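Standup notes
- DV: blocked on the single-chain target, sequence here:
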Amino acid sequence: MNRENWRGVIATLLTLLAGVNAHGHGDEDPLLYKVSIDEFEWQGGSGPDALAWRGEAWVGKDERKLFLKTRGERSNESTEEFELQLLYDQAIAPFWDLQFGWRGDLQPDQRRNWFALGVEGLAPGFIESELTAFAAGSGRTAARARFAYELLFTQKLVLEPEIELDWYGKDDPANGIGSGISSLEAGLRLRYALRKEFAPYIGLNWVRLYGDTGRYARAAGEDSSDLQVLAGLRFWF
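- DV (later): unblocked, structure below
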């Protein structure tokens, strides 16, 4: 898609959100917002130390919202990864939402724009689940699956295992990505809520790059597998 196409997608999302006010129910369905940073952390592994983040902000009503999601990583005083998503969110079932919109890969080297379509919600067993498919120009496709679970020792002490898998439909040598399963991350974070909105944590994260993605990393002098030590903050308002 060219730039004008993506401007049209973003304009459509804003129009859909504007329709929330027209279909609301007064004070029974107020306009709400939330900003949450689920991961803001230092990562130490076999490579250079890094600062990584993952968070989102949303505004809307109970069944329809506009989401802005961000994730990235910075090391050696340069941004290695920076992703933004602007999504329209529609409740489709209890505990499940449909999301669609724009994803922009602003880093690494070659920028990519994607159309995103996915679902987010709670699977049986209270497993937080995100399943998203992506499509871009030149026949590029991708998919991402993420699952997380909160194990409560107390109301304040929580252990959260998390796993994420990324897949790409074709090689993207400019960005060091190979076709097929490109990466798998498995994390374990133990946090303590000093307040319900503010929780420091420590943890471990294992990253594995597969296929040509791993080969590109090794050619650049990087490891295709790494076990990282984490220390970070989780907060929202």
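- Follow-up: Residues 3-23 form the longest helix (21 residues).
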